[in-house]
Amino acid sequence: MDDKSKQKLKNYVLWLLARQEYSKKELTTKLKAKEASESYIEALLSWCERLGYIDEERYCESFLRRQINKGLGQRRVLAEAMNKGVDRAQLVQLIETLEVDWFQLAQAAYEKKYAITPPNLDYKEKAKRVRYMMYRGFGYEEIDFAMQAATMGE
Predict the structure, then answer these.
(1) CA-to-CA distance for 58 and 14, rounded, in angstroms?
(2) Where is the RecX second three-helical domain (predicted)?
(3) Do residues 140 and 124 both lie within one domain?
(4) 40 and 74 in one domain?
(5) Is 81 exposed, middle or buried (0-12, 13-18, 19+ CB in 10 A)?
(6) Counting C-beta atoms within 10 Å of the first and last residue's C-beta, which end of the chain has fewer, N or C?
């Protein structure tokens, strides 16, 4: 690689990081798409890390907050974390530190989607709602809590 293409890739990474946090895995994928060499990718990312432009802990926290703001449950958050290259142990520790109330989150997500909940749902409609909530990453207890709270509110 010549110096001009290296500088372009460096500018590209800095431009990306100026907009939002990225994990090393995501940046590696983006740089590979730009046909950067493995050695240059490694050197560039370690340079960014030394200067504090990339911080896995900071990325982990911003990732978790984004997922919570989307109204996703713990299972979905952990699944998407794998795809993004987030350290699972670090994420689990952060979840415990923040003391996220998944039941409250499930209730808010359920009420946002199903503002009107009749007291007696038929089996088909109830199954549809449970599937939706499971897709969002919530467990059975959290879903049950959310559905009970919605019918109590009537």
Answers:
(1) 16
(2) 55-89
(3) yes
(4) no
(5) buried
(6) C
Identity of the residue numbered 129 = R
The pLDDT value recorded for residue 153 is 60
The parent domain of residue 45 ranges over: 3-54
Report in angstroms the alpha-carbon separations of 146 from 108, 117, 122, 130, 150.
8, 11, 17, 10, 6
Residues 61 and 34 in one domain: no
pLDDT in tens, 89-135: 889 999 888 888 999 999 999 999 988 777 788 899 999 999 999 99
Contact criterion met (CB below 8 Å) for 24 and 54? yes
